[in-house]
Structure formats: structure tokens, C-alpha cells
Write the C-alpha cells for this entry.
Amino acid sequence: MNICVFLSAADLDDRYTVPAREFAELLGRGGHTLVWGGSDKGLMKVVADGVQAAGGRLVGVSVEFLAASARPNADEMVIARDLAERKALLLEKADAMVIMVGGTGTLDEATEILELKKHGKHTKPVVLLNTAGFYDGLRQQFQRMEDEGFLPLPLTELVFFAKDGVGALAYLEESAGLQ
């Protein structure tokens, strides 16, 4: 399965890197392909290293203004013109999406993917990997959106919240009929 992971390119502490590495190793050992922003920095590098070391493939989609940070030994690397094209290519190349910890770029990617799903533009499973409770506040906000009628479909049909990589991958494999 081609699994797109949205995440930070920042250098982060063990609270985030250890679970990210564990999830990456699960992906690689499972024979999955990582589809990601292509960066060879920070948490993106941690995940790409883990997937590759465990035998998985790497498909990167970088963007022109970040191309200097693109991973040189990815199995495939595409350079998009801009962020909009990058997001479209990431969605196109993926069978499923996982949202890991990140900043405004990750949040932008996550909300666009969820908005497209809400409108039926894709039906791919989306997992929000809530490492160390990072997305507790966002989960609360999504729940409020559902409770107050802002979502046209149940939150459970829009996104699955996983507390760890094992739960995230199990959900994705079950959604794909691999279990």
C-alpha cells in the first residue's frame, strides 16, 4: 500500500522521533511504500530512514523552493511547481494518508485532505496519529464541529484518531482489506 505521511521537517525530541521511527519500521516491514514530502531533514528524514532500513520504498514529492533539501536516494522523487501541486500529487500517489505531528504546513495538508474527503473528492482512509496527545485540541475541535452540525458526515467517516503507529497501521490495513 502507498501510504502518504504528512509530518514536520523540523528536528524534534525523542517524544516524537521514537514513535515516528517505530511507525516507519512498521511500514517498511509491512512492505508498504512511504509517500511523503521528500525532505531529508528532521522528522521527515527519521521516517524515511526507518522505512528504507526496514525494506520499504520511498516516493517523495518535494517542491521547487525546497528541492535542495530533497532526499537524494529516494526510489522516486518528483519536484512540484508549488505547494498546491505538491498536495495534489501526494494525494494522487497515495492509497491512504497518515497525519503525524507538524506545524502549519502539516495542518494545511491535513485540512485540505479532510475537506476533499468531506466533499467526496476521495474516499481514501485518513489517520491522525496523535503522538503524545499532540492533536488532542484538534480532536476536541473536530468533535465540536460534528456536535454543532458543521460536518456533513460523521467524524468517524472523515478521520480515524490513532494513539500509536500500531493502531494507525492496523486501521489502514483493515480499511484496505489486508487483514
Residues 65 and 82 are 8 Å apart (CA to CA). The chain has a mean pLDDT of 95.
